[in-house]
Write a structure and sequence with these properties.
With 345 residues, this protein is mainly beta. The chain contains two helices and 17 strands. The longest helix has 17 residues.
Length: 345
Amino acid sequence: MKISIFQILLLLGLSIEAQNDSLDSEVCNLNKCFCNNDLTPAGVMISHVHDKNEWMMSYRFMQMNMNGNQMGIKNIDTKTILKEYTSAPQIMQMNMHMLMLMFGLNDKITIMGMMDYNSNYMEMQMKMGDLVHPHSMKTAGIGDTKINALYAVIKNESSQLILSTGINLPTGAYNLKGSALDMMYPSSRLPYNMQLGKGTFDFLPGLTYMHKKNKFVISSQLNSTVRFINNRLAYRYGNDFNLNTWCAYNWLPFISNSIRIEGIQSAIIKSSDQSLNKLSEPGSNSINYGGHYLNMYLGTVIQFKKSTLNKFRVSVEYGLPVYQNVNGIQMTTKNSLIINTTLTF
């Protein structure tokens, strides 16, 4: 999916509408601000800025399940993959536990930091002569860390337009190796998709618009990850562009539902890890990364407004792929689950 000029102009056009709304109110009324009625779906990281000296802490769990393989938009079976590669992946599960902290420096600027703990598990079929044997791999540990700054170009009771910028810090390991007894990677580096980090400092620009009218909230967000330099292993992941559009309806004071459409454009890995055998499996070949994806999510947000937990919220999203056009051969995403809890203080 290409990010078109039209989509960027649409975001800017919405900002002009929001500017008109802001003539009546330049800043949030504390009782009506987005922060006090947050309908943001579980999978959206940035939706609004906080008031001066306000903190928000969140824990987010994300799980992605993959099963089978495809080339481009078509499914490809294990037998066909084993004609070119020694092994073929069967199933994979990726789990991510994220801790995020946000702080309002003033009513316009919020800073955000996020770190995560990742775990990956993959089952494969490995060709050994005329026989095929099962094989599994797993990794777990700290992932990369992100630091962002958010600036509210517009902030009033009905709209927010936010410019964001940030940096990805390469705190996650990207040189993990298999054990000495591993059949595929004995004391050698594991493939890219089993590593915990990318190994590069990345630039994270973004633009977010959100508008609230009565019980409805609509939002559109364009985020990107721009990578300029290779890591110490002489490769880097390609640039990513992510467009999110969602709407939510607050049908009861304490509960809302949302629908979100996510489009992703991701480039292939630039260069490669020279220690990997490209014919070992699709995941060890750098051309088998990136593509164009379209996902749909249904979500629920629960806010405990009339209790001692009035600053606490829980949100859940379940996602399914609508369209997957991958570069080379990759595993097929089947579903994803996102659970998020936030506390404002």
